[in-house]
């Protein structure tokens, strides 16, 4: 489906454009955005990409001079990058700017970006991607929106339980299979802070699995432990070395696990709380004490 869309869009021979790729799986979004970037730049294929020419290989490695990834979306970084939006390409015909996690873009940064994405210069393309729907309407309205669905568990060749454990994240699932990780190995909820610190230090999938297993262990026993013990767990969790976006991911993971038996209306209300500057302790206490 994505290949068909890419071919049709490339055949239109657009001189510029802004695209918003959205879906639930960040690994598939990255793959889709890179595929489109390759198709825009590939010198071998006319309406797709070969994935074997020097340009495609360098885009994949992140070393092609005309494909820029803007990881920092604060206003200073956007203003710094703004001059490069209007410069000529270095190597090829087109220049591409990739902005991941566009949902993290604050209003002041968006205002600095709006004119550039609304009227990109000739042969300039902005590729934005997000795993969340709550992005600024000013960004959404100026973009061509492209939905990137998750791969199903049958397609990935794993059980539904494994698929749900990794939230359908294709990259994590494939890496788990390749490394033959024991994702079912028990981890006590009492190790949550230690496991989070290990993951933040290493960024290894094996460490992420430990964090997930500690969360699941807590969700399985929380109805049988005291309120004081629940609040102790919340303290351990929120005092872990995480940024707000990391806490948001942990919050969503707990929220979406079937072991959390709250009503759907309560889940939606709790999810909306992430959009407001609410203390992390209050967020998790509301989730676990419901």
From TrEMBL:
Q: Name one Pfam family in it.
A: DNA_pol3_delta2
Signal sequence: where? Answer: none
InterPro entries on file:
DNA_Rep/Repair_Clamp_Loader (IPR050238), P-loop_NTPase (IPR027417)
* Gene3D superfamilies the UniProt entry points to: P-loop containing nucleotide triphosphate hydrolases
* GO BP annotations listed: DNA-templated DNA replication
Superkingdom of this protein's organism? Bacteria
Q: From the Swiss-Prot or TrEMBL record, give the protein name.
A: ATPase
Originating organism = Fusobacterium necrophorum BL
The major lineage groups are: Bacteria, Fusobacteriati, Fusobacteriota, Fusobacteriia, Fusobacteriales
């Amino acid at each position: 489906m994505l290949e068909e869309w890419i071919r049709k869009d490339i055949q239109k021979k657009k001189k510029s454009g802004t695209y918003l790729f959205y879906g639930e799986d960040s690994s598939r979004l990255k793959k889709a955005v890179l595929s489109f970037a390759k198709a825009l730049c590939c010198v071998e294929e006319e309406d797709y990409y070969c994935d074997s020419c020097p340009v495609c290989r360098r885009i994949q490695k992140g070393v092609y001079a005309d494909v820029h990834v803007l990881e920092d979306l604060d206003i200073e970084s956007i203003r710094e990058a703004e001059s490069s939006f209007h410069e000529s390409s270095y190597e090829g015909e087109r220049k591409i700017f990739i902005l991941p996690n566009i949902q993290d873009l604050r209003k002041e940064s968006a205002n600095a970006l709006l004119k550039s994405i609304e009227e990109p210069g000739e042969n300039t393309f902005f590729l934005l991607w997000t795993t969340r729907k709550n992005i600024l309407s000013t960004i959404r309205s100026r973009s061509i929106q492209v939905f990137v669905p998750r791969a199903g568990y049958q397609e990935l060749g794993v059980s539904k339980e494994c698929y749900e454990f990794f939230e359908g994240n294709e990259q994590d699932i494939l890496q788990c299979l390749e490394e033959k990780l024991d994702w079912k190995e028990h981890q006590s909820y009492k190790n949550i802070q230690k496991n989070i610190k290990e993951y933040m230090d290493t960024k290894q999938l094996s460490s992420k699995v430990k964090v997930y297993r500690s969360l699941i262990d807590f969700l399985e026993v929380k109805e049988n432990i005291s309120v004081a013990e629940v609040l102790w767990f919340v303290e351990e969790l929120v005092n872990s070395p995480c940024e707000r976006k990391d806490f948001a991911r942990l919050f969503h993971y707990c929220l979406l696990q079937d072991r959390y038996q709250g009503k759907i209306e309560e889940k939606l209300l709790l999810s909306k709380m992430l959009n407001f500057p609410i203390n992390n302790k209050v967020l998790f206490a509301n989730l676990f004490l419901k």
